[in-house]
């Protein structure tokens, strides 16, 4: 038979696990996938963003982390980032577009493998204040997305 001390300990552990799960769920960045052919994003995190829209502070830098699974063997991938403003995609070049060398993943990508992509980019102070959808993806040499996510954002 359990003692009251054991019961109390189990209740505290259960409570701590529940709180950790809630905090983890709340810390994730709101996003939608956008039709990647060669893989799928399984989790997205943007620094300082846990609600929609993500507030991107001009003059700062953001860090994005995307966990994804590759559905194909892929030799090389590069960033494909754009801001969608009034349904018009505006390309946004990243400082180092080769995703195989500076983003935490190694190429070639292997089918069925899980990866963690990480990138940092500046939010330039001269950008106008506006709401947009950030489309962040990596693509292969044929232009097919390995992952593609849409993140509601606001530049301030």
From TrEMBL:
Family to which this protein belongs: Belongs to the NPC2 family.
GO cellular component: extracellular region
SMART domains (UniProt xref): ML (SM00737)
Localization per Swiss-Prot or TrEMBL: Secreted
GO BP: intracellular cholesterol transport
Ranges of residues in domain MD-2-related lipid-recognition: 31-153
Species this chain originates from: Acanthosepion pharaonis
GO molecular function, one term: sterol binding
Phylogenetic classification of the source organism: Eukaryota, Metazoa, Spiralia, Lophotrochozoa, Mollusca
InterPro entries for the chain: Ig_E-set (IPR014756), ML_dom (IPR003172), ML_Npc2-like (IPR033916), NPC2-like (IPR039670)
The name this protein goes by in its record: NPC2
Keyword Disulfide bond in record: yes
Signal peptide: 1-27
SUPFAM superfamilies with a match to the protein in the record: E set domains (SSF81296)
Keywords (A to Z) from UniProt: Disulfide bond, Secreted, Signal
Predominant location category: secreted
Keyword Disulfide bond part of the UniProt annotation: yes
